[in-house]
């Protein structure tokens, strides 16, 4: 594992070679219109959104009660260099119809991801997981290492219950009195019924210590609230039930620990964390240390939503990572 600290500066921005005006115009034209499709999975189907050209990357959103919409439009900045394939995981967002929460398990999540890979005729794409999405990426890679070319684990969630316990302790300290207020919201009838306003109020408190700059926090909250309103009460309650199912398969298992297993993976991996993430630094460090071929990049003045808070540094990290790994893989 190699660790470095990326500092926001003009010099860092210049690390990535910029395309010519004509090339940039062509890239913009190609990436302007996302391509949508649906992927059958049993009695249901997954909504997918594809944009960009280049190295294919399947994007795994966090939550796990969220859908992919909170990543937009900010993550799309990478679409002029990468082919981004987003999808709403089963039972969430536009993949909620005809889904019973009790049918969703960690195994079905892994199988669904493989269906996405097959749908786009990809032999071994890169996986980009954000937050909870990093857990799904690791679970998939452990089962199908030959089907993953690269992993990008952005603001990773704990891969072991021991790290989750550390996070919960630090989280409660950071929230302070807001912790009691959050509990009151979660216990309210409006929240239990899936009221978008109540859910938005809860996440305003939850993510209050997760971002560095107030402007980025407000932008994220506006994006998330719009998503909750679009989702509606029924969708919110279903997504929450799916989250409960996935917690039962992972973080609620006392012995849940992916770290020893990760030592078997040789997949080139980029682990990105912000120095103001509300996940303690050891969460990302433990994952990067466990993976034999991982690089840990820490972004200064950046929180849990690196793609939104530090887009230039994220782009530089992506380009450097793929250049380095492709150079290593190139025959001599």
Topology, element by element:
Elements: E1 2-6, H1 10-13, H2 21-31, E2 35-41, E3 44-51, E4 55-60, E5 82-87, H3 106-119, E6 126-130, H4 132-143, E7 151-154, H5 161-175, H6 178-187, H7 189-192, H8 196-206, H9 214-249, H10 259-262, E8 269-274, H11 281-290, E9 294-299, H12 306-309, H13 311-329
What is the number of E strands?
A: 9
Structural class: alpha/beta
N to C succession of SSEs: EHHEEEEHEHEHHHHHHEHEHH
Spans of at least 5 consecutive residues with low confidence:
1-30
Report the top-level CATH class: Alpha Beta
- Could you state the oligomeric state of the chains shown? single chain
Alpha plus pi helix count: 13
Please state the overall shape, judged from the principal axes of the Cα atoms: globular
């Amino acid at each position: 594992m190699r660790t470095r600290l990326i500092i926001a500066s003009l010099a860092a921005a210049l690390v990535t070679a910029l395309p010519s005006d004509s090339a940039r115009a062509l890239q913009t034209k190609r990436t302007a219109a996302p391509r949508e499709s649906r992927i059958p999975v049993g009695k249901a189907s997954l909504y997918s959104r594809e944009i960009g050209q280049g190295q294919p990357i399947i994007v795994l959103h966090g939550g796990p009660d969220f859908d992919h919409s909170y990543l937009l439009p900010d993550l799309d900045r990478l679409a002029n260099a990468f082919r981004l394939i987003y999808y709403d995981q089963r039972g969430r967002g536009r993949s909620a119809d005809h889904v019973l929460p009790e049918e969703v398990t960690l195994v079905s999540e892994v199988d669904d991801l493989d269906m996405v890979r097959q749908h786009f005729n990809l032999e071994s794409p890169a996986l980009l997981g954000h937050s909870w999405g990093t857990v799904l990426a690791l679970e998939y890679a452990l089962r199908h290492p030959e089907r993953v070319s690269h992993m990008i684990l952005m603001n990773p969630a704990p891969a072991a219950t021991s790290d989750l316990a550390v996070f919960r302790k630090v989280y409660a300290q950071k929230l302070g009195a807001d912790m009691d207020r959050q509990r009151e919201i979660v216990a309210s009838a409006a929240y239990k019924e899936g009221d978008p306003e109540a859910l938005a109020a809860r996440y305003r408190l939850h993510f209050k210590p997760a971002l560095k700059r107030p402007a980025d926090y407000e932008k994220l909250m506006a994006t998330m609230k719009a998503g909750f309103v679009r989702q509606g009460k029924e969708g919110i309650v279903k997504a929450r039930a799916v989250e409960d199912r996935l917690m039962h398969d992972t973080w609620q298992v006392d012995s849940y620990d992916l770290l020893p297993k990760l030592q078997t993976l040789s997949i080139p991996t980029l682990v990105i964390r912000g120095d103001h993430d509300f996940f303690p630094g050891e969460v990302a460090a433990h994952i990067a240390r466990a993976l034999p071929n991982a690089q840990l990049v820490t972004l200064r003045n950046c929180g849990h939503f690196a793609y939104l808070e530090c887009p230039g540094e994220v782009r530089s990290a992506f380009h450097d990572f793929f250049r380095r790994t492709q150079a290593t893989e190139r025959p001599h």
